[in-house]
Amino acid sequence: MQKAHEIIFAGFGGQGVLSMGQIIAYSAMIEEKEISWMPSYGPEMRGGTANCIVIVSPERISSPIISRFDSVIALNQPSLDKFEHAVKPGGLLLYEQSTIINPPTRTDIEVIGIPANEEAQKLGKKQVANMILVGAFLEKRPVVKIENIIKALKKVLPERHHHLIPLNENALSLGSKIVKESSNYGKQVEQTI
Questions:
Q1: What percent of the chain has pLDDT over 90?
Q2: 187 lies in a domain?
Q3: pTM for the complete prediction?
Q4: Domain for residue 190, yes or no?
Q5: For the residues 57-83, what does the mean pLDDT come to?
Q6: 52 CB contacts (<8 Å, ≥6 apart)?
Q7: What is the CATH number of the domain that holds 127?
Q8: Is the pLDDT of residue 78 over 80?
């Protein structure tokens, strides 16, 4: 049986961090899985720090409060600095490359840098960088199906933004493609005991 997957999405406010977690949570609900989505953010709307913990599980979730994660998706250096050591051995650390000055150093986890901001600019809308990262994450850890992400977008996005769903779908596919083509894809992680 599939076990629970514990994720934290972290970055600055305005990068779509909370939306990333919310979309995963809605997708898991569509798949009738148990979910927990717990956002945390400062009083600033943009520029302040933000993160959300998402747990996707086939069984009831005992507590939404956790300090170690199966996957960390970091969108800036402060988030990487704060959560790199919170990834469980053998887990996944996915980060946005252009915002990171000091890359991760752990060798007991899978580490993948994604040029999400750069690729989003190529798509013509920098706001889809978060969806590129979601696509990359789901390629490595398919906790929900991509088709349910699209269904969830229809629930999360206000109707006035539904015309952007095809662009978000392209961003998801691009994130998946980047991971497939990266030299890290399929690389086995050495776990330290």
A1: 78
A2: no
A3: 0.89
A4: no
A5: 94
A6: 8, 9, 17, 18, 20, 21, 22, 37, 38, 39, 40
A7: 3.40.920.10
A8: yes
- Tens of pLDDT, residue by residue over 139-185, are 999 999 999 999 999 887 889 989 999 999 999 999 999 999 985 44
Which amino acid, residue 152? Answer: A
Would you say 75 and 12 are in contact if contact means Cβ atoms under 8 Å apart? yes
**pLDDT band at 130, cuts 50/70/90?**
very high
> What is the C-alpha separation between 78 and 129, in angstroms, rounded?
18
Contact 83, 97 (CB under 8 A): no
Long-range pairs for 107-111 at CB < 8 Å and ≥24 separation?
107/190, 107/192, 108/189, 108/190, 108/191, 108/192, 109/189, 110/140, 110/184, 110/187, 110/189, 111/184
Report the Cα–Cα distance between both ends of the chain, in Å, rounded. 24
Residue 193 domain-assigned (yes or no): no
pLDDT value for 182? 81
132 inside domain: yes
> Domain total for the chain?
1
Which string of b and e fits 45-57 if b means at least 16 CB within 10 Å? eeeebbbbbbbbb
Instruction: Supply the range of the domain harboring residue 72.
Output: 5-181
